[in-house]
Each structure stands twice: as structure tokens, then as C-alpha cells.
Amino acid sequence: MLEHKFTALGGDVALTDGHVIAGYASLFGAVDQGGDIVERGAYAASLKRLAAKGGAVKMLWQHDPAQPIGIWDEVTEDDRGLRVKGRLLTDVAKGREAAALIEAGAIDGLSIGYRTLKASKDAQGRRLLTELDLWEVSLVTFPMLPEARVAAKGDTPEHTALRDVADAFRSAARIFAKG
């Protein structure tokens, strides 16, 4: 059964040159809204199998297999999570739309499509995902893991974290000003 795991883009995925995106599609050790935790190394075997077959993780729009919108040039694990870098195909209508929506801030989520191969439960009953068969990484509207987000051009994860804190303070100030 194909499952999906969502990640908000905002700070960890950057759109540059109008079509290049890079960031994290999954973060290790983070509890998502479904109560799952992806463990470090969960994608390693899947990425190795794909590379051996000459295959690639697909870039889709909203998990729709009929709507590929780009190419993931790099999909790797590091200490933090599943890092992706790719290109939106702006010759494709949905690719152009995706680029415009990301730049406008209307789309800020990534989601992985995968099959669970190995998992266990922790003491709190959360699912610990230790081996996943990764199929695709989609740009989506509603993310499940808020920690990974799409950034403005040139933003680093550190800049985005500071921007998010500043946005929270501005929102709070607006609420208090109305009261």
C-alpha cells in the first residue's frame, strides 16, 4: 500500500532561478501529525535499489501520477533527513504553475509517497519507520510535517527559522493591536 508523508516547505526548500528547488522532503526523528517518526537510514536501501536499476524518485504535483512537474536531480540522506534538489519543468503547464505558486507563497509543502518495509512502535505507540521504499516526492498544499518548508530565494534554514519567528511576533502584534 502506498503511503504519503507530508513536509511543509517554507524554510528548508528554496526556489531559485525560477525553477530549481532544494530542501528536505523528510526530517529524521521528527514526529509528524500522523504520529510517525522516520528513523535515520530509512531511505538508504530504497535509494540504492533505485540507483542500481537506473531509476529515479519522481517529482509529482499533489501525488498525482498523471502530473509529473519536474525532475529530482539529487535525492540523498544526510544527518538531518531526506535532502532533495531538482528542477521544475517550466515547459510543462503544471511546472510553471508550481513555480508561480511557490514564489507567491501559496504552496509550501513537500510530501513523500512510499511503502513501509520495516516499522516498530515506541513506548508512546508512535510508529518508528526504519525502512521505506521511496516512490515519489510531491509538491503539495497541506503538509503533515511542519518543520520542513519552501524558502525564498537565497534563504538558508537558519534564515527561515528567524523569519518564521519574526512572522509569529508580527501576527501576535496584529492580534493584540485589534484587541
UniProtKB/TrEMBL annotation:
Prohead serine protease domain mapped to chain residues: 17-160
Keywords per UniProt: Hydrolase, Protease, Viral release from host cell
GO MF term set: peptidase activity
GO terms classed as biological process: proteolysis
Origin superkingdom: Bacteria
Protein name: HK97 family phage prohead protease
